[in-house]
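Reagents: none. Just compute today. M48 family metallopeptidase.
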Amino acid sequence: MQYPELHAAFVVLLVGTQAFFTALAVLNVQHADRLVDRNAAWLADTLGIDDHNELHDYHRLTTAFSELQSWIGLAVLLVVLYAGALEWAVGLLTATGLSTVLQGVGFFAGLVVATQLFSLPFSIVSTFGIEEVFDFNQQTPRLFARDTLLTLGISLVFTAVLGGAVLVFISALPTLWPLAAWLLFVVFSLVMQVLYPRVIAPLFNDFDPVESGELRDAVEDVFERAGFSTSDIYTMDASRRSSQLNAYFIGFGSTKRVVLFDTLVESMEIPELQGVLAHELAHWKEAHIWKQFAGSAVRMGVVFAALGALVAFEPLYTAFGIPETATYAGLLLAALIVGPVLQFTAPLANRLSLKHEREADAFAADVMGAEPMIDALARLATENLANPFPHPWYATFHYSHPPIPERIRLLEAREDASEESTDLGGATPAND
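Predicted 3D structure written out:
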């Protein structure tokens, strides 16, 4: 084996990263168990959770299952790499006599299929086992199969186009390809803001515009209070797959839209829905979409710079027995090295998102009052069995939204400050 020190560093990086995040997950479960028991009265009074055993069970089981899948995936990856499967695949593709770009497209397509096949048993157990036990799953086996095949087809198309384009850049622009690939990422991200809600999402769900009735009146009321003209608001038939609640904002310009899950509409009172809608509108008003986009672009710029250095690193190819001409295989190995770096820099991206979510909550409180948003958050936590008390270290790496107790506490403090200001006739209390 050539470059044993490189192999040691590679394995330590992958295994060490997984061990670190598994330790965080264990710490998170233990922390949540303690705080859920300690705050049982608060959970009952604020969130309406009288029996928190189900919350315990769901959190423990989903965490354990996720970690099991991650460790099995890592083991399979290392076996594939060190049993010579990568070298064999490259040799097979090279023997076809196709160009490096076409070899790479075939290689990436094979990776997509292999990844999907690996994850399929876990998806089945998660959907028809865990989610079924906790009454979240609404999917039929036929719908699950359709979604799986449709996702695979879309992934193959995007992989062929984007992967092929990057390989063309590597061939045509040996030193500048990371810049070209980064620009492709930026353009693709912008296009997806339009393409996803208009083309891709409707392949999986039906989207009905909110046009008349009590909900439409409530929507127009929120827009008027927020100072907007009423725009595209849709309900999505999320109940076909899960009973969990959610809403999201996507797009820009004339393509922007707010999407409310039908489960959210059916489970929440009108004031709560208005609070959620006001929160989503804040992401539009405060330009959070563009700020998040800029942050992501900067982060990916660093990633492509690192990939450029690693793809040109000859010992990486020699260590795994592949020719330097197989840049597609080098790209895979480089991505495996950069992946952990992305995981450890997640707190930087999360910090920006956390700031935006707090701003959106504050905006919702200003527009509709704090109480509807507090009630909505309580409903989300209860219906989704969300862990209300993550460990601070775990939250730093995994949470793009503040924990619900923190969000409720900030909203309550805002409401108290508003009431105090009203009692004082709008005057600011003097400092001693």
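Residues 426-432 have pLDDT under 50 and may be disordered.
Action item: order primers for follow-up constructs.
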